[in-house]
Amino acid sequence: xxxxxxxxxxxxxxxxxxxxxxxxxxxxxxxxxxxxxxxxxxxxxxxxxxxxxxxxxxxxxxxxxxxxxxxxxxxxxxxxxxxxxxxxxxxxxxxxxxxxxxxxxxxxxxxxxxxxxxxxxxxxxxxxxxxxxxxxxxxxxxxxxxxxxxxxxxxxxxxxxxxxxxxxxxxxxxxxxxxxxxxxxxxxxxxxxxxxxxxxxxxxxxxxxxxxxxxxxxxxxxxxxxxxxxxxxxxxxxxxxxxxxxxxxxxxxxxxxxxxxxxxxxxxxxxxxxxxx
Length: 277
Ligand SMILES: NC(=O)c1ccc[n+]([C@@H]2O[C@H](COP(=O)([O-])OP(=O)(O)OC[C@H]3O[C@@H](n4cnc5c(N)ncnc54)[C@H](OP(=O)(O)O)[C@@H]3O)[C@@H](O)[C@H]2O)c1
Description:
This protein is α/β, with parallel strands linked by helices. About 45% of the residues lie in helices and about 15% in strands. The protein has an 8-stranded mixed beta sheet with strand order 3-2-1-4-5-6-7-8, with helices on both faces. The structure holds NADP nicotinamide-adenine-dinucleotide phosphate. One of its GO terms (molecular function) is carbonyl reductase (NADPH) activity. This is carbonyl reductase (NADPH).
């Protein structure tokens, strides 16, 4: 039975470099997902030029039909999934003039809710020893939240996915009411989205720990400050360097104990997500 790795938002940037590295290091098929097939095909062609052989699949993570089609392909052609890298994300530029409510809704919808939909649909297909990587960010640390009450809720070791979704909706209501800063939420929607994605990672590891499938590991990763379209090419690191920690987490050997449900930095070391320094 062939093994399968899936990387979302992989037609460019860090996702593209993750696919390239997995093509070299992973013993199985690597699926390069792109919401636009033309852009995806160009990315696949570029890797084929290097002698690598990723498989292209369309995936718009905000579209449940598109996620369902990917799930069908995985079921029918691979019978299961061994690596899932949730890399796709958006970020409004700091000087964006769109209303904050729109920025918050768009960013939370893609970076949190769409990733959650991908997880809900694809997690049933994960095989024992599967590895899931959520590409989070340095912006997704607890210290972005200034309210002690909200921090307490987010760090509650019994917090459920439904309770987290309620908190995310509470954040959106507070943004609409113009009170999110007073309430102590992160200032930027991107940071809020990544804080929520980090917390989702910890919740999902707790669920995997109770799963009948053995040894499924999920981590959140800060890939570093990378030179991509998302950072307007301000990050100093190459995409290959940015891919290192996500790939490390994707290829954790069977039964490794750490990192597991952790926040991993670009040097592949675990950091304390709750640290307020
Ligand atoms: N670059 C950094 O310094 C940095 C730092 C911390 C964290 N990160 C995180 O690293 C990850 C990759 O970022 P990047 O810097 O490589 O950004 P990027 O170059 O802008 O690439 C983002 C990728 O996500 C895709 N995407 C966006 N929305 C999507 C959707 N709704 N459905 C499917 N695909 C979608 C994009 O597709 P299109 O080409 O079609 O738009 C693109 O392939 C993100 O999670 C980001 O938050 C980056």
